[in-house]
Amino acid sequence: MITTTSLYDQLLAVFQERDSEQQQDWLKALKKEAFNGFEASGFPTIKNEDWRFTNVAPFLKDPFKLQPANIPLHEHRNYGAIPGLDAHEIILKNGLLNEDVAIAGLKVTPFRTALGQPALQNYLGKTIPLKNNGFAALNTALFQTGVVIEVEKNAIIDKPVRLIHVYNAEEPFFVQPRVLIVANGGSRLEVVETLFVKGNEPVFINTVSEIHVAANARLDHYNLQVGPSNVRIVNFTQVDQSGDSLYNNHTYTLPGISLVRNNLHLELNGSNTESHLYGLYLTGGNQLVDNHSLVNHKMPHCMSNELYKGVLMDESRAVFNGKIFVQQDAQKTNAFQQNNNMLLSDRAVIDTKPQLEIFADDVKCSHGSTIGSFNPEALFYLKTRGIGEIAARNLLVNAFAFDVTSKAEIPAVRNYIDKLITQKMAEAYD
Amino acid sequence: MANSTDILEEYSDKEYEFGFVTDIEMEVAPKGLSEDTIHYISAKKEEPEWLKEWRLKAYHSFLKQPEPHWQNFELPKVDFQDISYYAAPKSKAKYNSLDEVDPELIATFEKLGIPLSEQKLLAGVAVDAVFDSVSVATTFKETLKEHGVIFCSISEAVKEHPELIQKYLGSVVPYSDNIYAALNAAAFSDGSFVYIPKGVRCPMELSTYFRINTQNTGQFERTLIIADEGSYVSYLEGCTAPKRDENQLHAAVVELIAMENAEIKYSTVQNWYPGDKDGNGGIYNFVTKRGVCRGAHAKISWTQVETGSAITWKYPSVILQGDYSSGEFYSVAVTKNKQVADTGTKMFHIGKGTKSRIISKGISAGEGQNSYRGLVHVGAKADNARNFTQCDSLLIGDRCGAHTFPYIEAKNKTATVEHEATTSKIGEDQIFYLNQRGIDTEKAVALIVNGYAREVLNQLPMEFAVEAQKLLSISLEGSVG
Hints:
Chain A has helices at residues 5-21, 25-41, 111-114, 134-142, 376-384, 389-405, 411-429, and strands at residues 88-93, 106-110, 146-151, 161-168, 173-175, 178-183, 188-198, 203-213, 218-225, 231-241, 246-253, 259-268, 274-283, 288-297, 303-312, 317-326, 334-343, 349-358, 364-372. With 430 residues, chain A is α/β, with parallel strands linked by helices. Chain A has one domain. In chain A, strands 2, 3, 5, 6, 8, 10, 12, 14, 16 and 18 form a 10-stranded mixed sheet that branches. Chain B is of the alpha/beta class and 481 residues long. Helix content of chain B is 25%, strand content 34%. Chain B has 12 helices and 24 strands. In chain B, the strands form 3 sheets. In chain B, strands 4-3-7-9-12-14-17-20-22-24 form a 10-stranded mixed sheet, with helices on one face. Chain B has a 6-stranded parallel β-barrel with strand order 13-15-18-21-19-16. Chain B has a two-stranded antiparallel sheet with strand order 1-2. The interface between A and B is large, with 34 and 37 residues.
């Protein structure tokens, strides 16, 4: 247990203060349980198997404040727009939704309001593990702000919804944003999460997203992790899928944010579900990008497919850990997992661990993992065609990433990522 | 496949074939481990002072180490004080010919299909048979002597080649490595020692059969093999144990050292008593095996066929220190009833141009749990290191499990590492195809499993391959998923 004493004391004080204000019993109980969970495990250390390669201690040393000073975020509305993306926008400032959003077919509610609604009990904190899961437990115990997005039954949302997280980093700030998405039966939604940070002081974003995809619903979830190096993100996404649902996750991490830890947990609670997890991490500088995923097959006839690709530059480190559980009842499961990595620098380090745990026999499961670099023959071929070394390398990296980026079904997102890859690669050679 | 469950049941009910107890008077140390026990063992074996000191250091390290908790099974509580750490057949163990050996002992080996006398003639295999803890007979010593090969028990080597033992013992697996290695170092009773001199190709396969006897006697074997520059040796290790109702701990340590251009091939067929179908009894096989390629172009190859033991827990590893050295790991692990196998390998790429290859085939039946756990580590200086890993699991029955935990770490951009794994049940279409060629389901399964494991079985020396194949087909008789 890390005792960043001042931070820990602050957390405890804030919890006690908020606990006494808490009105609803169920919420109070949940938060109490969560805080106990956090107190028992503390912030994870490298002795914890799931955090073996990711030491968060140096990222927690700054004198963080838990309540941001109310400095107005600049009024510029275009918080890092994605060119050509026509989308509904939901803006969370320091995790807070402070203006009404009206989107046909969607019910967008700030958490403060939503907490008064009894229906929330059915979803909030229902499946998130609070033991040995320090960060998510801490968020559950302390979160106040965030957004609840509910898609009405059978509603097909015409345009993607861009969920913009805007943070004010004018002083060190530790924030616990929370997102809850409920896609009701037969609905369809595309969510694109982006990040915008103002200021240069360290910000630690400990976010938890809970996603419930009901029968016959489809949710496409894009997460664009592009930001400056004063940002640290620990992200826990819990997805609960009912039968006959489809969930697609696309996570892109690019050079910048100094610590990214993504935990993506999928619980497949019904038959005939389909899930795709696509990830791309292009890392540079001293960045540490850690992707942990868990797909839990509990029912028969489900299909999951995971493809994560990484390109590592400079002194960056990346960690991949993919777990697939196939429980005894989950016969006829098809589960695939692949992680490919390119090391472009001698100082970059990759730790990958694709993991399968299978308790059913009538299944098809496979995983693969590779580590390599540029294929010298491909480079040579391109050079013989008059393409310069740098251009050729960019071409090869773009081609390597194509398997992941091409899966994005929103053209604007795809183009944006492609462009960023080229740009970041070019910067690396400057 | 209407009868598949019957066959499965029949198979899971199958009694352990090699379960019997040889009644030989034993000299057994009092139960428990303490400094006194170590003094007792050391004195019994007339060991030099430095070895006793080493044992004591290991013992203190053992006391300090916690039991591991990262494994993928529930570690049964082992009462280290309830084990007797030394057992030797009372009839003293230095025979000049086989006729002098206790006939009951010979009979035991014969039941196991290891006729010492016959093997001398037929197989051309020199057998250093370890009956519990003391080497009883070492055959073919003369032939080996001509080539300068040293093949003897560790205790003999301590007396006759102390300089080698002192230099290499614990140099690959230090006693501080893990709690079982520490336990072994503190209390090891005997084991095998092999030294192949420079440029010598060992004229025959060397082989040791281990056997656990005497109730409540954990066996702490230690094997040390040194292949000097340009030499070659193939070493075979096989295990069978009599039936027991109480769990027994087997914590062996194997150390391999390959110098420049040397090659060591180490093959294991492990068939300790796996416990009954309810998971009572059986051996805990917690073994630390590690080899080091000291010089350039050295090669170490591990091959294992694991069908026995209640719990098999081992990771034969290779430290690829010399440039262009290579390591191989081939494994077939079968678990049935309530057996657990948590096995795999570690490949440490340190030198330039080092290569490693890992082929692991797991077969789970009944309620067996099979885990592959492996580490491929490419250090910053291991330019152009190359690894290929394949681990496949075959599932038979809906109550078994197959798990994979591969750790892959690369710190060098010129490294090429590949890992692939698949899990599936026996293909119904394959069985159907064989059925329609007139091959019944039981044979079809045997055929498919044998084909599945072939890549590994092919690595075994001839004599062993036959035994392994037999074991495999007995183990999986008719278990159709």
